[in-house]
Amino acid sequence: MLSRRRFLFGLASVACLGLSREAKAAVGLFEPFTLGYVTDAHLCIGQPDSYKMLQESQLFLQDVVKSLNEKKVDFTIFGGDNVEGPGRDDTNWQLFIDIAQSLNNPWNFVLGEADVSGIAPVDKMRTYGPDWKGKGIESKKSYWSQDPVAGVHIIGLDTSRTNSNTGDFGRAQGEWLKEDLQLHQRRFTVVFSHHPLLPPSPFDSGPPWDDYTVPNGANAREIFATSKYVRLVVNGHVHVSKVQQENNIWYVSSPSLAVYPCAYRLFHVTPEAINVETYHVSFPALIKKAKNAFISCALAYKYSSNKPSTFAAIAEGTRLDTDVSLPLIAGKSVQALEKKKPQKPKGEKPVKNGTQKKRESQPESESPNPGKSDLAPENPEPKTAPEIDKKTNSKETKAQSEPKAESKKNSPVTPKAEEKTAAPSAGENNDK
Q1: If exposure means fewest CB atoms within 10 Å of the residue's CB, which of 130, 188, 267, 406 is most exposed?
Q2: By the 8 A CB rule, do 77 and 36 touch?
Q3: Whether 73 contacts 36, CB under 8 Å
Q4: Distance CA 284, CA 253 (A)
């Protein structure tokens, strides 16, 4: 009997027939899939808010899980800082597991520094190893790989260091990565790490911004570049939305769930393109509260002591960082995805005799994108739509740091790959 998955895989194969031999070799043969990505949830019980909405963290995570269940998602990845420390007797982590298990699609996770930090030292494999083992990952290390759907390979790296904002990519992990890529050729490959391996602006500049990156991240990027099939690398940690490209690989920094703009991502992947969509939690008043806290944090003042509110625009990203189609075929251009606002229901008019007029049947509002849920409102703040970030050693320009009203039409933009110099040799912190 022909299953739905085999049928879709056949359609993907037919679609690939129209591609050049080079294109098929570059993307591999796989069926279209949708990936849910949620990072920096900072789930915890009984801690006060800071610029992180810790008291709302459980509400936000439950809201996102409900939203993901209403969408056609093939699998979900939690991108690290999933909890604000495991908690006494791993209370926070057990609550996270309880909520994540409500997903109706397979899920997995990588670690961030908050997951492994706390009053008492955290043994990564004692705390998190049993949950990876429950997903069929037999490993004594805190990094892993698996094949969630036919023709697709995903890799979860561990860049976390205890009580440190700075990440690490150790030599042993690098050797494992080389071997894993060699063993899983001809599969479209997506890599996840909590810290950015290609830092977005302004985190690509000097202190204090480089304290939030992986100093030896260039070592990982060099390994990615040896494979034709690594085409997407996704991170969290820095709480900003940014899309960059290097060596035909898309590097996507994603927004935080517990920190403004309180959002998560969907990645719709076909052999031709990766469509990125950004959704927010369903509580506009709480998003506004998160923004007020965010523009009062220390980094906002370090970004602009005169106008710290401009840091919010960095977190929001532009249209080409939030809702965008990223081509996988050479010669195609980046394009913003159009988001349509849902129609408002018409109000009822009273009749002269004082009785209520019967409700007229209204057609359902047109969804902005297939599978989108009404739980996720439009971004409460206006966004700009300039070109994709061009890396420089200077700060963002005024046009990038101050949000402007969106233009109704976005013309295609062709991004330029950015070359990064290699960083110092890697340490061993994540290989222990």
Answers
A1: 130
A2: yes
A3: yes
A4: 23
Residue 358 maps to a domain: no
Q: Which domain holds residue 321?
A: 7-333+425-431
Give, for all 432 residues of the chain, the pLDDT tens digit: 334 544 444 454 444 445 555 555 657 789 999 999 999 999 999 999 999 999 999 999 999 999 999 998 999 999 999 999 999 999 999 999 999 999 999 999 999 999 999 888 899 999 999 999 999 998 899 999 999 999 999 999 999 999 999 999 999 999 999 999 999 999 999 999 999 999 999 999 999 999 999 999 999 999 999 999 999 999 999 999 999 999 999 999 999 999 999 999 999 999 999 999 999 999 999 999 999 999 999 999 999 999 999 999 999 999 999 999 999 998 899 999 987 565 454 444 444 444 444 444 444 444 444 434 333 344 444 444 444 444 444 444 444 444 444 444 444 444 444 444 444 444 455 654
- Sheet of 144-146: strand order equals 144-146, 152-156, 188-192, 230-235, 249-253, 242-246
**Distance separating alpha carbons of residues 365 and 343, to the nearest angstrom:** 5
- Residue 240 within a domain: yes
Q: Read off the DSSP letter of residue 382.
A: -
**What CATH number did the domain enclosing 128 receive?**
3.60.21.10
> d(Cα 330, Cα 340) in Å, to the nearest integer?
29
Q: Looking at the 3D structure of the chain, how many domains does it have?
A: 1
Q: Within a domain: residue 383? A: no
Give domain status of residue 338, yes or no.
no
- Is the pTM higher than 0.90? The answer reads no
- Which are the contacts of 104, defined by CB distance < 8 A and separation ≥ 6? 69
The dihedrals phi and psi of 412, each to the nearest 5 degrees, come to -60, 145
In eight-state DSSP terms, residue 312 is H
Torsion of CA 385, 387, 393, 398, to 10 degrees: -40
